[in-house]
Write a structure and sequence with these properties.
- The protein has about 325 residues and is an alpha/beta fold.
- Helices cover about 45% and strands about 15% of the residues.
- The chain is built from 13 helices and ten strands.
- It has an eight-stranded parallel beta sheet with strand order 1-10-7-6-5-4-3-2.
- It is globular, with a radius of gyration of 18 Å.
Length: about 325
């Protein structure tokens, strides 16, 4: 696969959650079922080993990074989708993770810089170039409240000069910082070469509808690599298709507000996103894809009132769920 061309087409790329059993051990059967769900829903790729997968999978006491990447690759291998592995840590760790991902057949690395909190721009660029020599890189602007760090325009303007950068996931949950990334791509002249993907769960549809024009060139955010799209994925595929083919902004802006409201229930911004992983898992549990919402960190759980908020958005926006699709296929995915 030409990963650059594939990403430029614009796709739904879910961030793959982690399926655990009641003993907080890997539930291989349901881990596979999640990947099958995303693939059959029409996702154009899957991102594994990312924030939604729980960064703790890398800790030696769990040692789940390789097994989780291997399971996902076994399900994706014969599919024409973008196979993306999360890569993080200081440079030695990031190189090791990138080498593992490449050896398993992954197409690109979603490169988190959260661990390099005190690094200068030249140090961040050196780190990124080093990893990019191992595997094509997708840049990642992760919001600080869930482990990211501020990344100024000056960083992005240099980052987009790295030849092996194939895409950028923009997820600062901040319009000013989002514009920094998009402007850097346009001003570099690589707008037709680097695919932009939204990770702004609070502005998914608006990001996808917007044509960014800085006076010297234009570009669009063509797809999404999102934790939010780890649930109700079939509907997300339909939404992205509608945006690509019909930019009726009135109805789509109404949809934008509904999706953001649903995301607030899932991602728990009312409690500084403490329940963001558990919220996604709760939706998957209700659908039968997960047995429970157990996380590697026993303290990671739904916030007070979050379950009721999920109830509310289910009632308010039944058209956004894909429960019927899941129920029709669940037995096959769990087989």
């Amino acid at each position: 696969m030409n990963i650059r061309q594939h990403l430029l087409q614009g796709h739904v790329i879910p961030a793959h959650p982690l399926a655990l059993n009641a003993a907080r051990k890997l539930d291989e059967r349901r881990q596979r079922a999640l990947a099958r769900y995303y693939l059959d829903a029409g996702a154009g790729g899957i991102a594994v080993g990312v924030h939604t997968t729980q960064f703790a999978i890398r800790e030696p006491r769990f040692s789940l990074f390789r097994p989780v990447l291997e399971l996902a690759m076994e399900e994706m291998r014969q599919r024409p989708v973008a196979k993306i592995a999360g890569v993080c840590g200081q440079t030695p760790q990031a190189i090791q993770e990138a080498e593992l991902a490449a050896s398993l057949g992954y197409d690109a690395a979603l490169l988190s810089l959260g661990a390099l909190r005190d690094a200068s721009v030249p140090q961040l660029i050196h780190h990124s170039r080093t990893v990019a020599k191992v595997i094509p890189v997708i840049g990642f602007y992760l919001q600080p409240s869930v482990g990211g760090r501020p990344l100024q325009y000056s960083f992005w303007r240099e980052f987009v000069e790295i030849d092996e950068v194939v895409a950028i996931k923009i997820a600062p949950f901040n319009r000013y910082q989002t514009l920094d990334v998009v402007r850097a791509v346009v001003e570099s002249g690589r707008a037709s070469d680097i695919a932009l993907y939204t990770g702004n769960d609070d502005n998914i549809i608006t990001d996808l509808l917007t044509e960014f024009d800085f006076g010297i060139g234009k570009t669009r955010i063509v797809g999404g690599l999102l934790g939010h799209w780890a649930v109700w994925t079939k509907t997300a595929v339909s939404q992205l298709s509608a945006i690509h083919t019909n930019r009726d902004t009135t109805s789509l802006l109404t949809l934008a507000a509904q999706v953001t409201d649903a995301n607030a229930a899932f991602f728990d911004p009312a409690n500084n996103f403490r329940g963001c992983i558990a919220g996604l898992q709760e939706v998957l549990r209700r659908q039968g894809l997960l047995e429970g919402i157990w996380c590697l960190d026993p303290n990671e759980a739904l916030s007070p009132g979050q379950s009721e908020e999920i109830d509310r958005v289910y009632r308010a926006y039944p058209q956004l769920s894909d429960d019927h699709f899941v129920q029709d296929n669940l037995d096959n995915w769990l087989a």
